[in-house]
Amino acid sequence: MESYRSLEKNTQGQPYSVVSLAKWRILNRLHDRNETLYYRVLIDNIKDFAPIIYTPTVGLVCQNYSGLFRRPRGMYFSAKDKGEMMSMIYNWPGQQVDMIVLTDGSRILGLGDLGVQGIGIPIGKLDMYVAAAGINPQRILPVMLDVGTNNQKLLEDPLYLGLRQPRLEGEEYLSIVDEFMEAVHTRWPKAIVQFEDFQMKWAFETLQRYRKRFCMFNDDVQGTAGVALAGLLGTVRAQGRPLSDFVNQKIVVVGAGSAGLGVLTMAIQALSRMSGNNEMAAKNQCYLLDKDGLITKERKNLDPAAAPFAKDIKDVEGLREGASLLEVVKKLKPHVLLGLSGVGGIFNEQVLKAMRESDSPKPAIFSMSNPTMNAECNAADAFKHAGPNIVFASGSPFENVDLGNGKVGHVNQANNMYLFPGIGLGTLLSGAHVITDGMLQAAAECLASYMTDEEIQKGILYPSIDSIRHITAEVGAAVVQAAVEEDLAEGHGDVGPRELKHMSKEETVAYVMQNMWFPVYSSLVHEK
Ligand SMILES: NC(=O)c1ccc[n+]([C@@H]2O[C@H](COP(=O)([O-])OP(=O)(O)OC[C@H]3O[C@@H](n4cnc5c(N)ncnc54)[C@H](O)[C@@H]3O)[C@@H](O)[C@H]2O)c1
Ligand SMILES: O=C(O)C[C@H](O)C(=O)O
Ligand SMILES: [Mg+2]
After folding, report:
1. Judging by beta carbons within 10 Å of its beta carbon (0-12, 13-18, 19+), is residue 5 exposed, middle or buried?
2. What interface predicted TM-score (ipTM) does this complex get?
3. Is the pLDDT of residue 523 over 90?
4. Which ranges of 193-348 would DSSP assign to H, the alpha helix?
5. How far apart are CA 153 and CA 413, in angstroms?
6. What's residue 522's pLDDT?
7. Residue 290 Cα to ligand 1 middle (Å)
8. Which ligand lies nearest the alpha carbon of 128?
9. Is this prediction's pTM over 0.90?
10. pLDDT value at 62 more than 80
């Protein structure tokens, strides 16, 4: 910590990229030398270190990975290993693996295709699993599926570590993922596989293909959706309205990719339940834009994944197919503007100023794209242009904003880190062999009800990252209980399905907490 603090002192005024990569190196070296100490330092200083091992610095690390690479810290399965994966998986030295984070590097944060350099994301996500969920670091496995890259710069980089070929497509691609999933399932039938940062078409395709056969979920689609829903329900409470008022909120989602569509799907399910299973009414409240503007049924080559959310042109009076974000905000005066576009700065001054006319007394601006440079707007601009009454959340961390007169504009971090650790841990401890919508919904509801009214009134929608172990225990317990309710819980270790069934909510939380690994040195001297 002393060397970390002196680095901070000695690098004041130097560019962000230089300083944060130097910080990452200090932590990475500690990780290599002494795993127990690394995780202890991480847990005790999570607020300082999450921005280094996770977003935003992890993005920079991935971009520079060929130069930063020292040791694999995970497994790489390449298209050239086809037919060998079943034996390769037995090369992993750990006896037991509980949690796998898998990527193909095709959409790393908002940074695009980074090929094998995307391995930094599974490593960072699994560090969060250890820190937040207490998954034993000996039982985690970061995996890169190297199916090539379409990033020309990387293909030409002499230091690039991956296959120098264009990405596999179609059945060829799927056969690689199939083979990997079969191999993992054979060696560790209970391991949970988190799909991370796959480009949209494969995110949806693999989710559909595997979710009933394997214990897996897609964090960008499903984890993000739960976090966003908790935030949306929080904004209703922040307006001083009862939760039932959610059905009257106008929500504009900017970005029709894996994350945006995941959020809309879950929000519409919740709206629909609240309005007596009226899906039409639920859909009417939500508007979707992509790079070509407002998505309506008039759209040529309408993406089938976005089609269920496309507006009937007669329902958007005064707006046209492809209307710009500014036109949409001016016309609709939405309660919520939520960005998952991956494009930095598109909530520009004009758009933010237009949010001043929102029909909500506390308009919500969620600038969820990562890393920081890709956020739709930064916190200071949001409060400056949209006004001091807004509720603000971003995917990457920003400092709170000083609004003058002793007032503070609170910055929330709307990031799937508040859910994925609990989803993984809860599933593991329930012994469920699949992850259902019910389990994911329970996780989101738990997060949504975690904050007190007093906090919500101050614009605080999510817990501080300092309490991430506590929120993860609660989310984990909610997932266990949902699995029990759905008769999916087969138990874990000595705890069988009957015992899980008889646990109260408090006992389930205690059970989850007891199963969290905590870094302490193990004894080197065995007692006789
Ligand atoms: N905060 C979180 O927890 C969280 C979770 C998941 C994803 N994300 C972030 O969300 C972003 C998108 O992820 P994704 O998986 O959905 O990506 P994606 O590539 O699947 O989708 C991006 C979407 O944005 C649209 N878009 C591009 N330019 C636009 C513009 N100028 N205006 C409006 N829309 C535009 C595209 O048409 C596409 O529909 C990434 O930056 C990612 O880091 C954040
Ligand atoms: O990695 C993150 O910080 C969140 C999310 O999974 C993303 O892809 O941006
Ligand atoms: Mg992601």
Report:
1. exposed
2. 0.99
3. no
4. 200-210, 224-238, 258-274, 279-284, 325-332
5. 32
6. 83
7. 9
8. 2
9. yes
10. yes
